[in-house]
Design brief:
This protein is α/β, with parallel strands linked by helices. It has 11 helices and 5 strands; from the N terminus they run H-H-H-H-H-H-H-E-H-E-H-E-H-E-H-E. The chain has helices at 3-15, 20-32, 34-53, 75-87, 91-99, 107-113, 116-119, 134-153, 180-189, 199-207, 224-233; strands spanning 124-129, 159-164, 193-198, 219-221, 237-240.
Length: 241
């Protein structure tokens, strides 16, 4: 496939112009290709810089002009792309690029960084931990407990998955997690809370000779990307810690 066609598909992904199934398929290609990941990073960075440069220089919209299709994108497609980019370490750049683009505010931001008040109305949430950063792990656990406690106090049902991949898997490793007791306490307190480990990360570590042992009750998905995409297609909301 030519570079131009690759760029066209990646641009369509960032614009939210791909159907959910097509976006998921392309994200899987990106996941498997270092060259595509690098190119996607370049495109998202270019967009972020352009948005910043022209944030205060947007021309007025003529009366009666058609509304850009990007302004009415479904949450599912935006959330799917946000999740995919975050898994590749590009989520912050993607969020910055989108924030200046939609005339109807809140679509991408609500998924990427929804405050507790907005998240308190959601019924199914995915929290993602992808870095070997104890602060991020603690923030994910605190956020999960906050959201689940709020739902319980309000008499609402809330399903919540904490998905860990790459360095974030240490949160769920019996020999490495500094928060094992807290994870188990939360599991016991909230039956609708699941901790999900990325199977690809587990397999890679085992191939390197690492004896990976996960905390009791941890669910192993085929990959973090597959699990998050599946949840988004089921109507769940993705929140970036």
């Amino acid at each position: 496939m030519s570079g131009d066609l690759h760029d066209w598909r990646l641009q369509a992904l960032l614009d939210g112009e791909l159907a959910a199934a097509d976006a998921a398929a392309l994200l899987a290609e990106v996941h498997a290709s270092p060259a595509l990941r690098e190119r996607l990073g370049e495109l998202t960075a270019d967009r972020a810089l352009l948005r910043q440069a022209y944030a205060h220089a947007m021309p007025p919209v003529p009366a009666g002009a058609p509304v850009r299709r990007a302004a009415s994108l479904g949450v599912e497609r935006r959330g799917l792309v946000v999740a995919g980019l975050a898994l590749f370490g590009l989520g912050g750049v993607a969020g910055l690029a989108w924030r200046g683009g939609a005339s109807r505010p809140g679509a991408a931001d609500a998924l990427a960084e929804a405050p507790a008040g907005e998240a308190g109305t959601m019924s199914a949430i995915v929290l993602h931990v992808g870095d070997n950063d104890h602060g991020q792990a603690l923030a994910a656990l605190a956020r999960a407990e906050q959201l689940l406690t709020l739902a319980r106090d309000q008499g609402r049902e809330l399903s919540l998955d904490v998905v860990a991949n790459r360095g974030g898997l240490d949160l769920l490793r019996a020999a490495a997690s500094p928060d094992a007791a807290r994870v188990q306490r939360l599991q016991a307190a909230f039956p609708a809370l699941r901790f999900v480990a990325c199977g690809q990360t587990v397999d890679r570590l085992r191939d390197q000779g690492d004896d990976v042992r996960l905390l009791p009750g941890t669910v192993v998905a085929s990959s973090a990307l597959d699990h998050i995409v599946q949840r988004l297609q089921q109507g769940w909301t993705y929140l970036r810690v």
